[in-house]
Write a structure and sequence with these properties.
signal, Fumarate Reductase Cytochrome B subunit, 2% strand, two-stranded antiparallel ribbon, mainly alpha
Amino acid sequence: MHVYKNLLTRSFAVFIFLIALVQPLQAATPSDPNVAGFAGAEYWDVVRKGNEGKTQVQGAEAGSLINVQGEYWRYWRNEWITPAGAIALGGTLGLLAIFYLIVGQKKLDHPRTGKKIERWKRLDRANHWTVAILFIILGISGLSLLYGKFFLRELMGDSIWSVYIMLCKQVHNYLGPLFAVGLLFMIVRWMKHNFFNRVDLNWFLKGGGIIGNNHPSAGYMNGGEKVWFWLLTFVGIAVCASGLVLDFPNFGQFRETMQWANIIHAAGSLLLLAASLGHIYIGTLGTEGALEGMKTGYVDETWAKQHHDLWYNDIKDKPEN
């Protein structure tokens, strides 16, 4: 009799527990617009839309459990920008290599006179090399962050890779704002030389004198240098601005804003890197005497006559400062 009494008591307790467990589920019917059935379509619809409820998390997106836009970001970054950037960089390097093998370096048509003409002030050269060095470091670290996992990780091994990629991340984050400051200073200082005119149109029509012995006239900056300047201005500012958005998430940006900033930053950076390969080639291997001006500040009179004749005519009779 005692055994049956205990069994009846336990069964009654289990029955009460089941009623208490089922009661909240019955209250949470689909008729309530703020609650959905567990694991059903309505439940996930509520989760996706981010209905606000009780949470200890504070912030603009505290009511959003799933960021749906993240899938779109992943698609554009991995399916379009990453492969397109690799094609642009690899294609540009390949074309420049072929061009150099076929055409070679653009030599001076006449012997050097030995007379030097100042082309770049010391401040200009310091600004240029600061921006250039930062650009190269940011380019290497950024490409490592974007592409390194595909080949560097296996090459280095996990332990070295983890240290290297963390170093790239820190270098990229801290040097980025310095690059932005240097670039803005360069834009302001050089803008007066880079407005297009009719001389530049003729320069483009003649292909910049890269092939053959035809040397179209040019002022202080030729058409190609002006294109590079304005590309740096517009795309460079977009890259710097988007980088600052990514660098300082503590200003309360939405995740969607950060994702768009990442897309703009990656696409703009890859475009600048591909274009910079042409700029570097022309300023070093591609043109005899071009690098001397940015190294020493002075160019030979023959080089000035050949590549920037209008500028040479303006300053040839002026006394040196």
